[in-house]
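User: Could you write out the 3D structure of this protein bound to fructose -6-phosphate? I've included everything you need below.
Assistant: Certainly. Input first, then the structure.
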Amino acid sequence: MCGIFGYINYLVERDRQFIIDTLLNGLSRLEYRGYDSAGMAVDGDKKNEVQAFKEVGKVAKLRELIAESKPDMTKSFESHAGISHTRWATHGTPTRQNCHPHRSDANWEFAVVHNGIITNYKELKALLESKGFRFETETDTECIAKLAKYLYDQHPDIEFTVLAKAVIKELEGAFGLLLKVPPLVIGVRTSKKMKVDFVDVEYSEEGALPAEQASQNAAIKKSSASLLAPPDKSLLHRSQSRAFLSDDGIPQPAEFFLSSDPSAIVEHTKKVLYLEDDDIAHIHEGQLNIHRLTKDDGTSNVRTIQTIELELQEIMKGKFDHFMQKEIFEQPESVVNTMRGRLDAVNKKVTLGGLRQYISTIRRCRRIIFIACGTSYHSCMAVRGVFEELTEIPIAVELASDFLDRQAPVFRDDTCVFVSQSGETADSLMALRYCLERGALTVGVVNVVGSSISLLTHCGVHINAGPEIGVASTKAYTSQFVAMVMFALSLSEDRASKAKRREEIMEGLAKISEQFREILKLNESIKDMCAKFFKDQKSLLLLGRGAQFPTALEGALKIKEISYLHCEAVMSGELKHGVLALVDENLPIIMILTRDNLFTKSLNAYQQVIARGGRPIVICNPEDPEFSSAQTEKIAVPKTVDCLQGLLNVIPLQLVSYWLAVGEGLNVDFPRNLAKSVTVE
Ligand code: F6R
């Protein structure tokens, strides 16, 4: 999905080579999000001139294009602002023309990069066209640059922040701009220590105005809803951002790195601040000011400058060939991180700090609805059984898009749990807003701290899996699973009848990491198995039952998305109702047959497959006498508590998908047509 990176140096001399390299490196850190083209705008050789470079394909191709264009790389700038972007096409095909940055006019008076979607762009475009603007692209973004120019031409004395506010007021949708990005992170590097570790938020001063002026302001505000009248700049309160001033009040040399993602910033600085929804950050002459349109909207009046703990090596591949592989192998640690400080396996206690205030309300709710997409949806399905069992609360599991399509009924006494690795998935976010509007209690289970879902939900659990860079979600799945099991354990803490079962599950969780390590030792044999049984196949069937059906679904999704092999997950009990017709001695089949209370029923399906000449590969527990024959192809996984078995069973399937894709020579980390963070409907 689109990524944004900006770099500003103030009183820190940098040549064009440095600036362009910084932007290109920033973009390459965002590559994992998925994109189809990239572009940047930097200052030109003459005053007020802009040089823009745009290219379809990878950041490396943009780098080549820049080299071919031979800009004067030695030209140096004492102060400079550069913006760049990776685009994932939504409005208009991936072409150079549609690449960001987009411009207001041939002189690039306003240049913009944008992440998200402008839903009212057609109306804005029609209006601006009627005012004489000629659009050059098919994008929704272009209207932002043109709108800025139009407003500016009406009010040439307008301050930039006032203009930005007026532009933003007109935009509908979910958008982050340079200009402004939710969630935008700003990294700051100064040579001297900053005076304070926060930045004040500035508001329109409506509240402080005398009545007459306040009503005047209201009138202005009203009219500013039309394009013709941006708010009056005299009504804005201005304060200095103390962090960047010296003792005598003079701005210090400073560099600012702006990105949609901290992973593009950590190599430059650890000092970052996160913007909240509707914040407008204005960087001018070495000062960073944060503005908001209204004062009493419940947000804090400072934005803290934090030190991020993310290390660059955390986002690098290390000894692995692909991020996906690295992330599969990280799972023994990532699940431990999910449980760290939360699961006390000795004293049999679970503490989820982010839910503490709400846990008794959730216990009393009438229904829990899990809402998610893709892999995150599968993790919800995987824990549904244990939630029902431990909490005895009715549980629904919904795909966010379908839930919205149906406009499903939601009530005040519902608890809606939004599960998302990125915390930015558009369908999940829209479903969240839908549930908030209906007064439900909302809980977020997310990986990315500071993501929209984590900010908008009433409470939640961070799964703490660490950055997941491969587009195919792996460690986030197992961490979501573990986090949600802990959630169910917390909810059932007061149930004496469940005490024994809870203890059993906690003991199981405590051993999971070690069992992951055991399974990962199967890596080589799974690689061989893939080459032997699945090479050049057209289709693959995955069978599971009960809690292992979600495992089969997740395995099938992984195989489809990475290796482009058609793979279907079927609930074993449904086999006889149609799918059995597919089974013969040629169709590759994987059956999940670890022991649980449905084992006998699952065996029926196995027999049905064998009877049709099928030769399934079986995921089973070690030394299961049922599968002792040397002819049976097996992947043996350790046994755990039934409701946790899916955590273990999914790992061989992740490895199967990985080796299938590698065997086909495919780009494992960036599968075609997919993006890491799906911020469009
Ligand atoms: C598959 C995958 C996707 C995501 C889905 C939701 O490997 O990663 O199916 O799970 O797009 O994304 P999040 O979890 O970020 O909401």
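Residues 373-376, 420-422, 425, 428, 472-473, 557, 561, 677-678 surround fructose -6-phosphate (CB under 6 Å).
User: Perfect, thank you.
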